[in-house]
């Protein structure tokens, strides 16, 4: 039996379903990191109260903020970027650069052991998720297309950070 022809309605319906699935995956997050068992550990209700809905979605559910939406993307002052969940210092302003991607980008963390890593295979890609090593909060991803000498781009959600000026 020959296959039914693809109608405009079938094509648009399939495309809409695919877009909805991709939007859900973006909102829900990627890497499946068990965010409990870190040195700073709280109940889900306590994290929700502390962080508010958007920070909770990003830090605790591995969500992503809209590109170019964070004021920290344009932050130029000297200072330190801390985890918005537990206040651990993560990045120095001297490591920040404009990657043009719409999220704050850094060449390297402020010190070893401040960031944990996990494999993220969501959205049909293989990426490396970064999370705070103290509270497990999702920060963003690290890519191998950054500036020399390390060649890393730590692409971080602005809502996952709090900036402290020097």
Would you kindly provide a written description of the structure presented here, covering whatever features stand out?
- By secondary structure, this protein is an alpha+beta fold.
- It has a single domain (30-165), classed as Metal Binding Protein, Guanine Nucleotide Exchange Factor, Chain A (Beta Complex).
- Helices cover 22% and strands 24% of the residues.
- It is built from two helices and nine strands.
- The chain has helices at residues 8-28, 44-59, and strands at residues 79-83, 89-92, 96-97, 105-106, 115-120, 127-132, 138-143, 153-156, 161-165.
- Strands 3-4-8-7-6-5 form a six-stranded antiparallel β-sheet, with no helix packed on it.
- The protein is globular.
- The chain starts with 7 loop residues before the first helix and ends with a strand.
- The model is unreliable at 8-29 (pLDDT under 50).
Question: Which features does this protein show?
Answer:
single chain, 166 residues, alpha+beta, Metal Binding Protein, Guanine Nucleotide Exchange Factor, Chain A, 3-stranded antiparallel beta sheet, 9 strands
């Amino acid at each position: 039996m020959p296959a039914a022809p693809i109608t405009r309605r079938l094509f648009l319906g399939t495309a809409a379903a695919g877009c909805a699935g991709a939007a859900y995956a973006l909102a829900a997050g990627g890497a499946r990191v068990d965010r409990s068992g870190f040195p700073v550990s709280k109940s889900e209700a306590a994290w929700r109260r502390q962080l508010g809905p958007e920070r909770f979605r990003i830090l605790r559910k591995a969500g992503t903020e809209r590109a170019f939406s964070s004021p920290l993307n344009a932050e130029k002052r000297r200072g330190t970027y801390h985890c918005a969940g537990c206040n651990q210092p993560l990045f120095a302003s001297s490591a920040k650069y404009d990657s043009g991607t719409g999220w704050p980008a850094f060449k390297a963390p402020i010190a070893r052991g401040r960031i944990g890593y996990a494999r993220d295979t969501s959205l049909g890609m293989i990426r490396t998720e970064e999370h705070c090593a103290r509270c497990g909060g999702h920060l963003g991803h690290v890519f191998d297309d950054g500036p020399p000498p390390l060649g890393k781009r730590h692409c971080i959600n602005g809502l996952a950070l709090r900036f402290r000026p020097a």
